[in-house]
Amino acid sequence: MINIYESTITAAKEIPPYGEEGEAVSTIQRDPENRVQVLDEDGNLVGEPPDLDEDTLIDIYRDMKLARHFDERAVSLQRQGRMGTYPPLSGQEGAQIGSAHALADDDWMVPSYREHGAAVVRGLPLKQTLLYWMGYEAGNDVPEDANILPVAVPIASQIPHASGLAWSWKLQGHDDTAGICYFGDGATSEGDFHEGLNFAGVYDVPMVFFCNNNQWAISVPRERQTASETLAQKANAYGFEGVQVDGMDPLAVYKVTQDALEKARNPDEDQPRPTMIEAVQYRFGAHTTADDPTVYRDEEEVERWKAKDPIPRLEAYLRSEDVLDDDAVAEIEATVERQVDEAIDAAESEPRPDPEEMFEHVYADLPPELQAQRDEFVATVDRHGKDAFLEEE
Amino acid sequence: MINIYESTITAAKEIPPYGEEGEAVSTIQRDPENRVQVLDEDGNLVGEPPDLDEDTLIDIYRDMKLARHFDERAVSLQRQGRMGTYPPLSGQEGAQIGSAHALADDDWMVPSYREHGAAVVRGLPLKQTLLYWMGYEAGNDVPEDANILPVAVPIASQIPHASGLAWSWKLQGHDDTAGICYFGDGATSEGDFHEGLNFAGVYDVPMVFFCNNNQWAISVPRERQTASETLAQKANAYGFEGVQVDGMDPLAVYKVTQDALEKARNPDEDQPRPTMIEAVQYRFGAHTTADDPTVYRDEEEVERWKAKDPIPRLEAYLRSEDVLDDDAVAEIEATVERQVDEAIDAAESEPRPDPEEMFEHVYADLPPELQAQRDEFVATVDRHGKDAFLEEE
Amino acid sequence: MSETQNLTLVQAVRDGLATEMELDDDVVALGQDIGANGGVFRATQGLQDEFGEQRVIDTPLAESGIIGSAIGLATGGMKPVPEIQFSGFMYPGFDQIVSHMARYRTRTRSRFSLPMVLRAPYGGGIRAPESHSDSKETFYTHEAGLKVVMPSTPYDTKGLLISAIRDPDPVVFLEPKLIYRAFREDVPTEAYEVPIGEAAVRREGSDVSVFTYGAMTRPTLEAAENLAEEGVDAEVVDLRTVSPMDREAIVESFKKTGRGVVVHEAPKSGGLAGEITALLQEEALVYQEAPIQRVTGFDVPVPLYAMEDYYLPNAARVEDGIREAVEF
Amino acid sequence: MSETQNLTLVQAVRDGLATEMELDDDVVALGQDIGANGGVFRATQGLQDEFGEQRVIDTPLAESGIIGSAIGLATGGMKPVPEIQFSGFMYPGFDQIVSHMARYRTRTRSRFSLPMVLRAPYGGGIRAPESHSDSKETFYTHEAGLKVVMPSTPYDTKGLLISAIRDPDPVVFLEPKLIYRAFREDVPTEAYEVPIGEAAVRREGSDVSVFTYGAMTRPTLEAAENLAEEGVDAEVVDLRTVSPMDREAIVESFKKTGRGVVVHEAPKSGGLAGEITALLQEEALVYQEAPIQRVTGFDVPVPLYAMEDYYLPNAARVEDGIREAVEF
Ligand SMILES: Cc1ncc(C[n+]2csc(CCOP(=O)(O)OP(=O)(O)O)c2C)c(N)n1
Ligand SMILES: Cc1ncc(C[n+]2csc(CCOP(=O)(O)OP(=O)(O)O)c2C)c(N)n1
Ligand SMILES: [Mg+2]
Ligand SMILES: [Mg+2]
Asked: Alpha carbon B360 to chain centroid distance?
């Protein structure tokens, strides 16, 4: 496993240029093993960058910083007992933020459970993410204008939803809506991955299947998850393209995602709309705060991947292009810290839930039996007091 | 759909020779679209035949005739109300008999529900197949020396069993056992196909996954089942080879299966043991006797495929090689008819089941509650008489 | 007066679907072989001709994919009506049913409801192969967030199916294939609703209450008629919706008679008969005059068809159950 | 006297598995993260070091594949012990459980039995994320051919696990993760069996019988002790095996007290409490002095953890239930 990244990525010179005039989808129509890259580990340009204005480049940088800082704070909240089990994302910002930025306003995102970074780009307030992992139902409130499906805990189960959602746009004639569906390397082993992608191929739906291959499914390394050489090549079984991208290179991710979304919206004749993107990356931290990665992987491996950290990499590039300087970085850091502070304060001010909340949102109208259960329970809690049920906070 | 067969099979000249010295697996390591063929539609040799003695060739011919005749009788039994729903196999004998003959005595077969032909090669008495489709539990009795797992009705659900069974041989060190797992074109869409083949790739198990692509999953044609060009190429997602074979050419099927089994047993270094074979074929009749195929397909299409009937094809070849003549064919036909007659007589002599049979074989030892249910029910049937429950026969 | 057609139960399924698809463009049907083939039981016969391939859609052979993509269609604003060919093939899609279909409203605080109807023929008695005869409704009634409907007449079938499609919540609609073509009824051509959650008293009686639903309603009524000749006056309550159950109707009937029998073809252990018994003794123990009898399938896999008539409750067994309740 | 170790329940799982793997080479464990990681709850900690990668096997992330290939391993003569990481993730493998694991013996007239044990931690109370807290044992108790075990103590856990592995039939072994580490017990180091299908009276009493199992045994005993101070003498029966249930023990206790309470964290509708109530009124109606109380989870999805303590029965609710039964 530890050689997967190196073996192909170091062959940077073999990567053909793309994005030249008239070759809009050339980042996609390539051998799955021929990984797309724009920046090398030090932030030097090794491929054609996507056509982005300075503001967007800075936004991508800022959002990665925000995701990283949020992540660090969340992990520490969990350690202090102020939050439950939380799945960190550090290391994966390049893939999440790069891809989410490629979406148009009306596009949709179908997450797994680790895309807190992509979600914030799509309009989900950080407070909601905190509340969710603090175990509050209120965390499930998503603003009506945030085009995002809910967190899906059962691995790969969101993939058929993504196919169905994109299919609904086609059936309803919203030609220019497209979407992105995130899942992990482990998820590719589930039947729902297979069934979901097969439906996408058969109905030719405008969905981009974005695999965050972070090398590990908890303790199971990528190469024991499946015997196929790449995950990207699995797309071939469904009649559409799969492509590998350096998932720790936000600009390469942006470019590939944009090309895939463009193809989803406006395919050439006989060109399939769906694409699978395998974003090769690494999770720096634990699988969740309940996990101890030192049991199954070497610190040395982690260090090797930390050298590819997407944040300093983009920062170096933006500094070299004079888009960022020390002041700008400091200001971004300050803003990001404030934003996360405010979100934590807001989340921690959430009142303890009332027992009747449990019965809301089960059905549009509560059936009589459930009304009876609720009323009886509310009376029980009144009789005994909340403290007989909920732990002191 | 109707062009799939033609489009590649007519390009017979493009099919490279195989089976030459030192090229034991060349029928397998080829492009999935490069379909293997030995006999053309008229029984002329167009590829290297497998190395088979005359007796085996005659056995293959005889078993195909037996399967065909059994099938015709079974369909007619169903029409006469003497049997329930039955899934016919006519047209698919080449794939079933050719592949089953390639198995060694100790090898195993994991069927779906249509492999009555392959099963008889593996030692399952015809009487059992009849009883099964007549709804008798006794049909589930399989001789201890018949290495065959039970009929699996839920589509594709037997595939993970096949992977597990082959894995058990590896774990137990029976190096030279291998197996074949049958399933249809429709089955490739199920999650269990994906999970089963992925396990086979990861644990590198000695199993051959044999897809009877008969072009239809009930009324759904192959090309609407999945957008991939071939089914064989799906194997690539699991890190092993997939190959297409002319499934109505019993000799090509034999050859490819033999090569795949050989590789399963004795792989070269770094060569994966599993193989997926897509045997391109056609079901001449209905999906089951409950199905009316004229609703969804043209007679013309059926006729076109009937021209590829594996039985006259092999017969023509064997006659041209002087292995068969009129007398031999007549004798085979007479034997086959007698065999099927006897099996039907035996099956139809099966006594009506007793009510207590229903409670047998649920657990090794019947739990008290179930004993009580049984005893009470037996008393009920005694009280009312069997006729109050079972229809008159 | 409104027009009617004389329809079988399976024709009423088709008619209910067609009627609502006519009225509501968001309704789409999808499943294996439901298009040109019209479904293996012809429940969607001709619908593809009528509504086109975009609204009556043949799918690949993948139950989790069918249910999962229907969930996706519903999040996209449509009202999908997926068909699973036999209820015994819902299991490969079980995770989608339990983890998502049932829980999506809760998980999204009602931002997304899933106005979908998962149809499947259920039950035994048609001499079908293995796995084709299951009656495992409690797998779904035990999961909050789902409604589960099991009609027993053509009239109810159309009305309940239309209610189910219009219901903002996901409905599992289990069709009694044993009686798909057993009899006909006059069914209005227009759209109408039979409310979800209301039982129907099929036969009034004063001696004993017999609770049943779906295909078992007929042998139950037959048994009640047979026993009437012996002077036993049984009330037969057809639940129609098994989740949420019409507890009021059940309790009311029982309070009247003080004796109860529950009939279903699902296995005894963990079947609805236990739930109904528990309900009755919670709500009406003081009225109870005899143990409630469970006349159900046995705790065995449904046997192959030569023995399935032993497995399924029939009029003789229902009569025995009623007698036990009455003679206690 | 035999040696003992002082173990938690999860350590007893590990010890039971190790003990039997030592004795029987056919036993293999497989599942997600059970190897180097030792399982997410450490139930297989160190086993891979002890028995090697061929007997303690990390699998791909695919529940149907895990259960299905375990079935295949069993047909090949092995005794697989697959672990599903949380019982809420058994659903993607539900078809393999229901259509195959449960029915393989019947389908093959006992040519193949499936001596396998499907382990999974179940239940709430550990502040885990969504889908991680399900207690849906009736999905399995309703399927004939399976045995379902839910232990509540370290001693029983080891003995029942060994019995389950040795049992020729497939067993679903649901482990109460809430009490994985809640307390320790002396557990013999050697192999021993606790028989499947036998309940244990955890507290003798004469006023009321309280039936429970798994993680709910502790709050139930706590409630019983609390009420003893008020002069209510409750008998607490721990079922240990929920299928087949020890009907004799249940009925016997009830006949003694005439009053019953059932406690489980599974949802009320369709939970085992209904089944037990039905059993009691079938077998012992004349002894019954009060409605049997169901103290259970509610008919809602298990809420996220901030509210899960509302969802789970606790001592206060059990006490209320017992009082209702006693004061009726
Ligand atoms: C169906 C199912 N099985 C098991 C789990 C437990 N689980 C949670 S995350 C995880 C690993 C997922 O790995 P991957 O898909 O690579 O995503 P990552 O966590 O690395 O982002 C597992 C096994 C689950 N949530 N759902
Ligand atoms: C899980 C499941 N879903 C649906 C069915 C109903 N069914 C039986 S056969 C069949 C078509 C199978 O097609 P294919 O795999 O191509 O095999 P063939 O019948 O053509 O041999 C279907 C849908 C089933 N048996 N199992
Ligand atoms: Mg991963
Ligand atoms: Mg087919």
From this structure: 29
Regarding whether A382 and A306 lie in a shared domain, the answer is no
ipTM, two decimals, is: 0.97
Retrieve residue B227's tokens. Answer: 């957008």
Q: Which residues of B touch C181 (CB under 8 A)?
A: none
Written as six digits, the tokens of C100 are 């998502």
pLDDT, tens digit, 9 for 90 and up, residues A253-311: 999 999 999 999 999 999 999 999 999 999 999 999 999 999 999 999 999 999 999 99
Q: For the segment A192-209, what is each residue's pLDDT rounded down to a tens digit?
A: 999 999 999 999 999 999
Whether the CB-CB separation of C127 and C305 falls below 8 Å is answered with yes
- Indicate whether A17 pLDDT > 50: no
In this model, does residue A5 exceed pLDDT 90? no
pLDDT at B25 over 90: no
- Which of D299, D197, D298, D178 lies closest to D244, judged by CA? D197
DSSP H helices in chain B: 4-9, 54-79, 93-101, 116-121, 126-133, 158-172, 191-203, 222-225, 250-265, 299-306, 310-320, 326-348, 368-384
What is the count of structural domains for chain B? 2
Please name the helix (run of DSSP H) or strand (run of DSSP E) that holds residue D176, with its range, or none: strand D171-176
Concatenated DSSP letters of A205-255: -SEEEEEEE-SEETTEEHHHH-SSS-SGGGGGGGTSEEEEEETT-HHHHHH
B287 catalytic? Reply is: yes
- Per-residue confidence at B393, pLDDT binned at 50, 70, 90? very low
CB atoms within 10 A of CB D208: 30
Q: Residue A164's domain is classified under what CATH number? A: 3.40.50.970
Mean pLDDT of C95-106: 98
Does B371 lie in the same domain as B306? Answer: no
The reply to whether A260 and A375 lie within a common domain is: no
The structure tokens listed for B244 are 């297409």
Q: Do C113 and C70 meet the contact criterion of CB atoms below 8 Å apart?
A: no
Residue B227: which domain range? 4-348
**pLDDT at B392 > cutoff 70:** no
Kindly write down the DSSP assignment for every residue of A297-365, as one continuous string.
S-HHHHHHHHTT-HHHHHHHHHHHTTS--HHHHHHHHHHHHHHHHHHHHHHHTPPPPPGGGGGTTSSSS
Task: Ligand 2: list residues with CB < 6 Å.
Answer: B 114, 153-155, 184-187, 212, 214, 216-218, 287; C 32, 61, 63, 85, 89, 92
Tell me, yes or no, whether B171 lies in a domain.
yes
A82 Cα–ligand 3 center, Å: 26
Nearest C-alpha to atom 12 of ligand 1 is from which residue? Answer: A217
Task: Give residue-wise pLDDT tens across range C109-163.
Answer: 999 999 999 999 999 999 999 999 999 999 999 999 999 999 999 999 999 999 9
Q: What is the pLDDT of residue A224?
A: 97
Are A205 and A240 members of one domain? yes
Of D38, D89, D311, which has the smallest distance from its Cβ to A358's Cβ? Answer: D311
| Residue A367 within a domain | yes
- Amino acid code (one letter) for A15: I
Q: How far is the CA of B184 from the centre of ligand 4 (A)?
A: 5
Convert the pLDDT of each residue in B137-186 to its tens digit. Answer: 999 999 999 999 999 999 999 999 999 999 999 999 998 999 999 999 99
- Residue D18: other Cβ atoms inside 10 A: 20
Q: Which domains does chain C have, with CATH numbers?
A: 4-188 (3.40.50.970), 200-327 (3.40.50.920)
pLDDT tens column, A358-385: 999 999 999 999 999 999 999 999 999 9
Cβ atoms of D133 and D215 closer than 8 Å: no
CA-CA distance, B349 to D84, in Å (whole number)?
46
Query: Is residue A250 domain-shared with residue A199, that is, in the same domain?
Result: yes
